[in-house]
Design goal:
Chain lengths: 637, 233
């Protein structure tokens, strides 16, 4: 009834590199668990849905924090419960409904093969995969292979790639896997991704892996809500701050007055008050409704992975959330980032990193074997966290880390007053001497066309401008001085180095492990503004929503620069289908390739795109409730 | 009139929710009972209401606004506005429509031109001109502020003033500044959508309006406690 009628005893269901047991897809579609408890215990669990107190840490008032930062939690006994893995050439994926219970209340999720997250698909670079996706829902469905470079009709976006999969029908996807690394797949229809249709894709390289590891785990982060996502959207339209439980209160103002005096407090508040915006507006949808999951497990259930002493563990971290950016850390363990969005990068060791919705990062850790380690993924607004444990021994308990303080937006996040922040990178900005550029790629003296837009790898040299369509009731702000924040880890993390001595990953740390495959300069630049009206909860690009927008046309073979300017106060993870987003981080020789790029509030960011795949591609903010309208078709012809 | 209001509210409730359709801009409905309160707790059986509802999309909506007061279970004042509302600026909607005062009788009808939205410093603002069939022009300004004492305790001061160009003895309103009211309500949001409150309200009538009140042996100014609920869905 609850998805598994029997249990499989497996030593460790970790997806180790040597774990290539031949298990049929059907068997794997069941939920696997290691049988560590007595049969009777397990039986009672099977008979009744486990009632779990909703994990509402951090949702209650800030006062509750102050009184008791970490209430004693009664975490469930550690039970490694892994996502089933399917491998081979041929896959049968059935999208259907399934009863789940994450909060104490039973709800209906949409799942693939009855599993939430969906089964991990393990492919091999160079193979041809066939995926028969059957839609058992009573509405249209689809599967998009996120980050895969494939023919446009295999991309799985209804309205662009195909018409979607009708109820009761099966769509046969077939494509060659020409890349390796960590990716994911999800429904591109309705709210099915929010309600459970998301899973990992792991592609083993044809050549020896540049990364050395003994064991790997997929870590799918997500946000679960008991509410109907359509209701969430309606609530946001009616009261956009509905889910914000951290609003500025009178006592905040009072303590500021005491600290800075009335005059200064008023001055500081002036812009926010004038703009009618809240500096506490970090996430649209928060832990007030979300239960954050790691591999489909609540923090109380605590997903648990095993490792042996001395092992190098590779964690393949995927943010499959609908609306939540996560900040990930493993206290006392250095994390070496080896891949971003599936693509190998020069290893960089950090203590914290932010993972935007739809991004993936692969990290290598070598945890000490004398204790259990917490894997802590706090929501960007600190309204909750996903939590799991890596341990050498199931009897060991990890210490639950503390949430970082709730971030507060600054003027710089609104695209103005950059006094405090300056980009260390010398981007292609007018007036800069460009000495850093000289190291990597000397300017071609006579190439005025190139000089006009900015050298590849260094961002745009063009001034930004706001189009007429950006003005009106549908757009509530425009960044007047957006800057590159490549070396800024973002709101809530940017002071970690200074305060905690924790090194935080920024995009500037990403260097492709391999040389830039297309060393051409961009022939032109496409400037796009991410726009919206928070209060009305409307989102758009250049002030034009998808329903009213013309496609962005690219000529097959051309190399262009996309410059995105964030004219809102939210982070927008922008995902371009079918083509790599080659992020300009100031390194022309080893430009990192991404499929999803966070555009920070009040900032701009640039990436190069080689239009090497014909077809109609989706290009959108991956936040589910922004995606309807902050969306464009990119047409390569 | 009451029947019309009930019909319209009913209409709002039965209009199927289009929220499930996958569009960025679904047709939504909202009913917001800003005030539903007992006046002068313990004294008399007096009630007041202030209810607004809309149906529509991001930029275009149909609004229904009704407010009124009942004294000793008799409706003493009641008005309904039916407005077309169009977003004209990021925080402002322009509204045009019809206002009907069903009490006191005889009834009055007005053409409404208004602007509603959020002023700088987060003042919820509703300013409307009313033009009656007899050529009387009224101006009503309403401001409300929400002071968050905590995430759930919200103190909400409110100011309303009415101005008319002509006196209307039957309605008891005089030309010039007619009346003003100041309210202060403290609510506790049990849910975002449901908040009981207590508060105080002070009203004062001015000029001709005050004269009309004296003739009727009514108070020129009064102060009372209120208790009620704020609900929206």
């Amino acid at each position: 009834m609850y998805g598994y009628s029997y249990e499989i005893e497996v030593q460790s269901l970790a997806i180790t590199t040597s774990f290539y047991a031949v298990i049929s897809g059907e068997l794997l579609s069941q939920v696997h668990r290691v049988n560590i408890k007595s049969i009777s215990n397990n039986m009672s669990e099977l008979m009744t849905p486990i009632t779990r107190r909703r994990f509402v840490l951090g949702v209650s008032s800030a006062l509750a924090y102050a009184v008791s930062p970490w209430p004693k939690l009664s975490f469930a006994d550690t039970q490694p419960a892994n996502i089933p893995t399917i491998q081979g050439h041929q896959f049968n994926l059935d999208i259907g409904y399934k009863a789940v219970n994450f909060t104490g209340k039973e709800r209906i999720a949409t799942t693939v093969n009855g599993s939430l997250p969906a089964p991990t698909l393990r492919w091999k670079q160079g193979q041809l995969v066939t995926l028969n996706v059957t839609n058992n829902l009573n509405e249209d469905s689809s599967i998009h292979w996120h980050g895969m470079i494939l023919p446009t009709e295999m991309d799985g976006v209804p309205g662009l790639s195909y018409t979607g999969i009708k109820p009761g029908e099966t769509y046969k996807y077939e494509f060659e896997v020409n890349q390796s690394g960590t990716y994911w797949y999800h429904s591109h229809s309705g709210y099915q991704e929010q309600t459970g249709v998301y899973g990992a894709i792991v592609i083993d390289p044809a050549e020896p892996d540049p990364v050395d590891y003994d064991r790997d785990y997929v870590m799918v982060l997500s946000d679960w809500t008991d509410e109907d996502p359509a209701d969430i959207y309606a609530k946001l339209k009616k009261q956009s701050h509905y889910y914000n439980t951290r609003e500025r209160t009178f006592s905040d103002v009072w303590s500021e007055v005491k600290e800075k005096g009335v005059a200064q407090t008023l001055r500081d508040r002036e812009m926010w008050n004038d703009m009618r915006m809240s500096d506490r507006d970090i996430s649209d949808v928060t832990g007030m409704t979300y239960t954050f999951l790691m591999n489909g497990q609540t923090p109380e259930q605590s997903w648990t992975g095993l490792f042996n002493k001395g092992e190098k563990v590779r964690l393949r971290i995927i943010n499959a959330a609908a609306m939540t950016l996560f900040d990930v850390r493993i206290p006392d363990v250095k994390m070496t980032v080896v891949a971003a969005d599936g693509q190998s990068v020069e290893p960089v060791t950090v203590d914290d990193f932010r993972i935007g919705v739809a991004e993936t990062y692969d990290i290598i850790i070598e945890p000490e074997a004398d204790k259990a380690h917490a894997i802590f993924a706090q929501a960007i607004d600190r309204s909750g966290f996903a939590y799991g444990v890596l341990t050498p021994d199931l009897n060991m308990k990890a210490e639950l880390p503390e949430l970082d303080p709730t971030p507060i937006l600054t003027m710089a996040d609104m695209g103005m007053d950059h006094g405090a922040i300056s980009s260390k990178l010398m981007m292609n900005m007018a007036g800069h001497d460009g000495h850093k550029m000289d190291h990597s790629m000397p300017m071609k003296k006579n190439d005025t066309a190139v000089m006009g837009t900015g050298l590849a790898g260094f961002g745009s040299a063009l001034p930004i401008s706001h189009q007429k369509t950006e003005f009106g009731p549908h757009v509530d702000m425009r960044s007047e001085q957006p800057i590159y924040k490549i070396d800024d880890p973002g709101i809530g993390l940017r002071d970690h180095q200074r305060i905690y001595g924790r090194k935080v990953l920024s995009y500037a740390d990403l260097h492709n492990l391999y040389p830039t495959s297309d060393p051409r300069e961009p022939s032109r630049e496409i400037e796009l503004h991410l726009t919206g009206n928070m209060t009305r909860y409307m989102w758009s690009i250049n002030g034009i929503k998808y329903a009213d927008a013309e496609p962005i046309n690219l000529k097959y073979g051309e190399r262009v620069r996309f410059t995105l300017i964030n004219d809102t106060m939210m982070n927008h993870p922008m995902h371009l289908h079918g083509l790599w987003s080659e992020l300009e981080t100031g390194d022309a020789k080893n430009i990192p390739r991404k499929h999803t790029v966070i555009v920070q509030p009040g900032a701009k960011i640039s990436y190069l795109v080689s239009a090497d795949a014909l077809g109609r591609w989706a290009y959108h903010c991956h936040l589910r409730f922004h995606m309807f309208s902050m969306f464009r078709e990119v047409r390569v012809s | 009139m009451l029947r019309l209001s009930i019909f319209l509210i009913g209409l709002f409730l039965i209009v199927p929710s289009f929220a499930t359709s996958m569009t960025d801009d679904p047709i939504l409905t909202m009913i917001k009972v800003d005030q539903l309160e007992i006046i002068d707790i313990g004294n008399r059986n007096d009630m007041a209401w202030d209810l607004q509802g809309w149906i529509g999309q991001d930029l275009n909506k149909l609004w229904l606004k009704t407010e009124g007061e009942s004294v000793n279970s008799e409706i003493e004042e009641a008005e309904v506005q039916l407005l077309y509302s169009r977003a004209v600026a990021p925080y402002w909607d322009a509204q045009i429509g019809w206002r009907h005062d069903s009490q006191p009788s005889p009834t009055r009808d007005w053409l409404v031109f208004g602007i509603q939205g959020l002023a700088p410093y987060f003042f919820e603002t509703d300013i409307a001109f009313f033009i009656s069939d007899s050529g009387n022009i009224g101006l009503r300004t309403q401001f409300e502020y929400e002071l968050m004492l905590s995430q759930k305790w919200i103190l909400s001061p409110e100011l309303e003033a009415n101005i008319f160009t002509k006196s209307d003895a039957v309605a008891g309103t005089g030309e010039g500044l007619s009346d003003m009211s100041l309210g202060l309500r403290l609510r506790y949001e049990l849910k975002r959508e449901f908040a009981p409150y207590i508060g105080i309200e002070w009203n004062k009538r001015f000029g001709k309006t005050a004269d009309f009140a004296r003739e009727e042996n009514e108070h020129i100014s009064n102060f009372h406690w209120v208790m009620g609920v704020r609900v929206w869905f």
